UniProtKB/TrEMBL annotation, chain A:
InterPro entries in UniProt: NADH4_N, NADH_Q_OxRdtase_chainM/4, NADH_UbQ_OxRdtase, ND/Mrp_TM
Transmembrane residue ranges: 6-24, 31-51, 81-101, 137-154, 174-195, 215-238, 279-301, 308-329, 335-358, 374-396, 402-432, 461-477
Subcellular location, record wording: Endomembrane system; Membrane
Protein name listed in UniProt: NADH-quinone oxidoreductase subunit M
TrEMBL record, chain B:
Main location, first listed in the record: membrane
Compartments (UniProt record): Endomembrane system; Membrane
Protein's GO biological process: ATP synthesis coupled electron transport; electron transport coupled proton transport
Phylogenetic placement of the source organism: Bacteria, Bacillati, Actinomycetota, Actinomycetes, Micromonosporales
UniProt keyword terms in alphabetical order: Membrane, Transmembrane, Transmembrane helix
Entry-linked PANTHER family: NADH-UBIQUINONE OXIDOREDUCTASE CHAIN 5 (PTHR42829)
Transmembrane segments: 32-52, 87-107, 114-132, 138-159, 171-192, 204-225, 246-264, 276-297, 304-324, 330-352, 373-395, 415-435, 456-475, 503-524, 601-622
Gene Ontology cellular-component terms listed: endomembrane system; membrane
Keyword Repressor: no
Protein name: NADH-quinone oxidoreductase subunit L
Organism: Rhizocola hellebori
Gene3D superfamilies reported in the protein's UniProt record: 1.20.5.2700
InterPro entries: NADHpl_OxRdtase_5_subgr, ND/Mrp_TM, NU5C-like, Proton_antipo_N
Length: 503, 625
């Protein structure tokens, strides 16, 4: 079966179909979107089982179709363990986000429901495309096109955010990504020239190039990915974008789209430019390390829930960064697992915050206070998501954070010790956020807000339940995912030619 | 039975899940399910205890599943049952069940009581995981689990700002310790390539003295966090914001002793380095004195008991720090303390129950006539903790004091006398508490009608009082012999002659206890003022927790707040501006971009400098390796 081309194309077809649903039939658009996203999820499950974790092949399930013969660019799809888990994460999150956004637009009147859901599906298709592509040009195309649906999601559909702020955030997001993308385009072309006039990833891995060229090309790719991830100091677009986007889109933005950056570093920077990767590793680790501490401190100081969570994500991306560039198996596998777990945990956190925001009509921490009294169950889920975010043992993010820090410690103790301070700061920002919103004396205006009298609904329970179950299950038994990740990370480390790759 | 160790924690875990998911639907049967779960675990634990006696060697291990397998790192979800684990399992489930039973009465009118019992069972689960694990990652799993349960229970009445703050404080201070603990795990893997107890202890001899010292210090940091030892003691007294059964179970009898467990469990590490032992002994001694001194100045019945807990755990740290035969002594003191401290905490809860939640001992008095059972059972706890023979404390605290006199050099005098001084102070402040509460004239607020608590509350008190009386005598040879095989190399420790004869230490210990008690009775026998009186420097300092909280605030909290505020400003104005500016340059001066970055030139310059310094600093850290 052609798993990979199908799983890439189906959501795009879905987007097209939903886009043509008339605005007067919002329910039909929602149902269609949910159906398409569930089909994609089914395909992801099938792909998961078709994938052979024990196989020696670097990339599996390969398909290749003619595209632009003159440039030797092809529609080549193939996955390794890393892209497989990312596809699974995307396919899981999208139906959940669809369900979570079900009623977000009902009272907005002016905005088109079919457009919103078509954009979500388009986003899903392009994001999955970045993971399935095994052709550098194809990857680049998906990487760039992915911006468009997100731009509109942020700019046109943000809840409870002034239009001006939304548009500012959307433009900022677009420009940052575009700049990174253009630099990467230059690097892609350069790679094509020195790599033997082909875009095929598998042959570019073996391309010979001079040290200087390799370093420049590395930087071209790395800059684009560092903006996307984002790493300090390219991070400032994320709090604005995360703060302005509707909660569902924000969950996808931080949960999956930003991971394309770290995925890109693993698949493209490390494998294509191994010497340069080793050369620049100290710099990348330094940026990540600053991000861990700096963004965590900033998260403590935020008064806007969605911005706060965006900052925590920047800190988390710092952990992924040090994990990738430590070049040990534990740190690398930990970083990839971190990408998955962070998607689940922060996805949940954004969705729950969205549920609070929809009720209260505000994203400001100071507009809440003692909310646990009014919506105890929702506050409980919020707390759970917070615990996942601070990597409490027993929940999935702990395993990945543990692996990253342990792996880093074996090669660089100073970095590991400083990064460990990040876990204390994580406790600070999560608990302070919980305390200021749900605990303490009840904010008197809160009880006058109509929405706050409704605790979590059945639909919302269906939204959060799978994430809660997965966070717990992978917290105690991460082996199925690790078994898929480990060989791919090992292969990547072999490509980087790190001596201890087998360790 | 021993092949099903998982049942021990699975039963309370299942019960916790059911309770947390049922919520109000379980108002009738929920609390009782909550009591039965740890009780079943207790029975299972007893059976396993007796089966373990017949094993040779007395240890059994099971690896349930592969937990974190990546390359050389193979962490299994593995369990171990040995004499040390066995006594902890019995303490946790035994005393735990009694406190659960008591809580049925204490929490009877709280509408969130089902959730309460869910958290309570969650705590038991995590605590059992902590002691049952066969590697340090499992220990850490339970370790953070009890931290979570403790947080949930301290801030159980979360609508009170003070409770919410106390819970957060506990969690964050514990995390500081946990950071040390997890670094210790990394160190083990980096240098010994394993995190399993058996292999770590086998290979630990290959570490250099320095690495061993660092490993021990990191473990000690974790232990100090969880056990409320200096310098991480500040959260424990605040934890009294939780319902009283929580204070009894978590912040007196079990969780706070986890630090002692870690050091006892890691005895091959601690015994191998005398500097390390000296540090543990010092931490224990400082904390035991600190706890006593502050305990003398507090008026809140639960806070006096909390500081007394800090101080008693100081004795246990002193014991495990002394090493050799004192490991087992620390553990039996821990067990005895579990009885008498739980007894007194629940007694305090019973007093509060009869006095409309009054906690100020200046406002009690003469209660012995109104709550006879509480009075008598509390008396047993009081006599036990101050070390009057033949009650528990005498048999478990005296040997630690005696061991402190046996270090073989001048430090024997220092630590020995400090421990004796602690005994004197303990007798003083505990007697003050006891007399002001139960004797002397009435100093009640208006409208008080004190009454005895219902049987569901006093029956556990009676059991715990019996434990407070007899546990010490029963354990002081049998349990020590039972535990000694766990503490490898105990036989090889050189025995020093005590600097004073044993009989003299015993006599002095009892004499000091009687002296302290007599002094307190003489001062407070006729009551006390209703409000704290103006006092000298020492008492004022003690009332303010010897300014340890003020220190934390000035050194960590305020600069931290200032730093976050400054960074928020810099990030919004500076870093953003710089990158926007650069982006505008690269992007060819788009009009919109230029509008985004109006002004702020100076803050750009400043933040570029700051960013440069940060990145350079981080690069330096990376280079340090």
């Amino acid at each position: 079966m052609k798993y990979l081309s199908l799983i890439t194309v189906v959501p795009l077809i879905g987007a097209l179909v939903v886009a043509f649903v008339p605005r007067s039939k919002p329910e039909l658009a929602k149902l269609l979107t949910l159906a398409f996203s569930l089909v994609v999820f089914g395909l992801a499950v099938a792909t998961w089982f078709a994938f052979d974790a024990g196989s020696k092949a670097r990339l599996q399930l390969q398909e290749s179709y003619t595209w632009i013969p003159a440039w030797d660019a092809r529609f080549t799809f193939a996955v390794d363990g890393i892209s497989l888990v990312m596809i699974a994460l995307t396919a899981l999150l999208v139906p959940i986000v669809v369900l979570a956004s079900w009623k977000d637009l009902d009272n907005s009147g002016k905005r088109s429901v079919p457009a919103y859901f078509a954009l979500i599906l388009a986003l899903e298709g392009t994001m999955i495309g970045t993971f399935t592509a095994a052709d550098v040009l194809l990857f680049y195309v998906f990487f760039e096109v992915m911006l468009v649906p997100m731009y509109f999601l942020i700019g046109s559909f943000g809840q409870d955010v002034p239009t001006k702020q939304r548009q500012y955030a959307a433009v900022k997001f677009f420009l940052y990504s575009l700049v990174g993308g253009l630099i990467m385009l230059a690097a892609v072309i350069g790679l094509w020239v020195v790599g033997g006039k082909t875009f095929e990833w598998a042959s570019l891995v073996n391309a010979d190039m001079s040290t200087g060229v390799e370093r420049w090309l590395f930087l071209g790719f790395f800059l684009a990915f560092a903006i996307k991830a984002p790493f300090f100091p390219f991070h400032t677009w994320l709090p604005d974008a995360g703060g302005a986007a509707p909660a569902g889109a924000a969950a996808l933005l931080v949960g999956v789209m930003d991971k394309v950056g770290t995925f890109g570093i693993l698949r493209y920077c490390l494998s294509l430019f191994p010497d340069a990767s080793r050369y620049f590793a100290p710099l990348a680790i330094a940026l990540s390390l600053v991000g861990i501490i700096y963004a965590a401190l900033l998260a403590v100081g935020q008064n806007d829930l969605k911005r706060l969570i965006s900052y925590t994500s920047i800190a988390h991306f710092g952990f992924i960064g040090i994990g990738i560039f430590a070049f040990t198996l534990q740190a690398g596998s930990g970083a990839v697992l971190y990408m998955v777990n962070h998607g689940l945990a922060t996805g949940l956190l954004f969705l729950v915050v969205g549920m609070f925001v929809v009720r209260r009509g505000s994203t400001l921490v100071t507009d809440f206070g003692g909310a646990g009294k009014l919506v105890p169950l929702l506050a409980g889920v919020f707390f759970f998501a917070g615990m996942a975010s601070l990597a409490l043992p027993g929940l999935a993010p702990f395993v990945s954070e543990f692996l990253v820090l342990l792996g880093v410690f074996t090669v660089n103790q100073t970095v590991a010790v400083i990064a460990t301070v990040g876990i204390i700061l994580a406790a600070c920002y999560v608990l302070w956020m919980i305390q200021r919103t749900t605990q303490g004396t009840l904010n008197p205006t809160l009880s006058t807000v109509d929405g706050m009298s409704r605790d979590i609904s059945k639909r919302e329970m269906v939204v959060v339940a799978p994430l809660i179950v997965l966070l717990l299950a992978l917290g105690f038994y991460p082996k199925p995912v690790l078994d898929v990740i480990n060989p791919a990370v090992e292969a990547t480390l072999t490509e980087v030619q790190v001596v201890e790759a087998g360790k | 039975m021993l092949s099903n160790l998982w049942l021990l924690f699975a039963i309370p875990a299942a019960s916790a899940t059911i309770l947390l998911l049922s919520g109000k639907r379980a108002l009738k049967w929920g609390p009782w399910l909550g009591v039965i779960a740890p009780a079943i675990s207790f029975v299972l634990g007893l059976i396993m205890f007796f089966q373990l006696r017949d094993l040779n060697p007395r240890v059994t291990e099971q690896n349930l599943w592969s937990f974190i397998p990546v390359g050389d790192l193979q962490v299994s979800f593995g369990l171990m049952f040995d004499p040390l684990t066995a006594v902890f399992v019995l303490l946790i489930t035994g005393v735990g069940s009694l406190i659960h039973l008591y809580a049925v009465g204490y929490m009877a009118h709280d509408e969130r009581r089902v959730t309460f019992f869910g958290y309570f069972n969650l705590f038991i689960t995590a605590m059992l995981l902590l002691v049952l694990g066969n590697n340090y990652v499992m220990l850490y799993l339970g370790w953070e689990g009890v931290g979570l349960a403790s947080y949930l229970l301290i801030s159980f009445w979360y609508t009170r700002p003070s409770a919410a703050t106390a819970g957060k404080k506990a969690f964050i201070m514990n995390r500081v310790g946990d950071a040390g603990f997890i670094l210790a795990i990394f160190l083990m893997f980096a240098y010994l390539n394993t995190v399993n107890y058996g292999q770590v202890f086998e290979r630990v001899g290959s570490l250099s003295a320095n690495t061993m010292l660092i490993l021990g210090l990191l473990l000690l940091l974790g232990a100090c966090g969880k056990s409320g030892q200096f310098p991480l003691q500040a959260w424990l007294p605040d934890a009294m914001e939780g319902p009283t059964p929580v204070s009894a179970l978590i912040h007196a009898a079990t969780m706070v002793t986890a630090g002692v467990y870690v050091i006892a469990r890691s005895n091959p590490v601690f015994s191998a380095n005398t500097t390390l032992q000296l540090i543990v002994v010092s931490v224990g001694t400082i904390t035991l004195l600190l706890g006593c001194i502050i305990g003398c100045a507090k008026d809140d019945i639960k806070r006096v008991l909390a500081w007394s807990t800090v101080s008693q755990i100081g004795y246990m740290f002193l014991g495990v720090g002394l090493g050799g035969g004192a490991y087992a002594l620390a553990i039996i003191h821990l067990l005895a303390h579990g009885f008498f401290k739980a007894n007194m905490f629940l007694g305090a809860g019973s007093v509060m129950h009869g006095m409309k939640d009054q906690v100020d001992i200046r406002r009690f008095g003469a209660l012995s006539k109104y709550m006879k059972i509480t009075w008598l059972t509390f008396m047993m706890g009081w006599l036990a903790i101050i070390g009057i023979p033949p009650l528990s404390g005498y048999f478990t605290k005296e040997p630690i004091i005696a061991a402190a006199f046996e270090r073989g050099d001048w430090t024997s005098w220092l630590f020995g006398w400090a421990a004796l001084l602690g005994a004197l102070l303990t007798a003083f402040y505990m007697t003050r508490l006891f007399v002001l509460t139960f004797h002397g004239p009435k100093r009640w607020t208006e409208g008080q009608h004190p009454h005895e608590s219902p049987p569901v509350m006093w029956i556990p008190l009676v059991f715990l009082a019996i434990g407070s009386v007899v546990a010490g005598y029963l354990m002081h040879t049998s349990v020590v012999d039972w535990l000694n095989p766990v503490f490898a190399g105990v036989e090889n420790v050189p025995e020093y002659e005590p600097v004073m004869p044993h009989w003299l230490i015993s006599v002095l210990g009892v004499a000091f206890a009687v002296l302290g008690a007599g002094l307190a009775w003489a001062i407070f026998g006729r009551g006390t003022a209703l409000e704290p009186e103006p006092a000298g420097v020492v008492v004022t300092a003690a009332r303010n927790n010897l300014y340890t909280d003020a220190f934390n605030e000035v050194v960590f909290e305020k600069p931290g707040r200032w730093l976050t505020r400054a960074l928020v400003y810099v990030d919004n104005k500076g870093v953003d501006g710089v990158v926007n500016g650069l982006a505008a340059l690269v992007g060819g001066g788009s009009g919109r971009m230029r509008r985004l970055q109006t002004g702020f030139v100076r803050s750009y310059a400043l933040s570029m400098l700051l960013g440069g310094v940060l990145v350079l600093g981080a690069l330096l850290a990376v280079r340090l390796g």
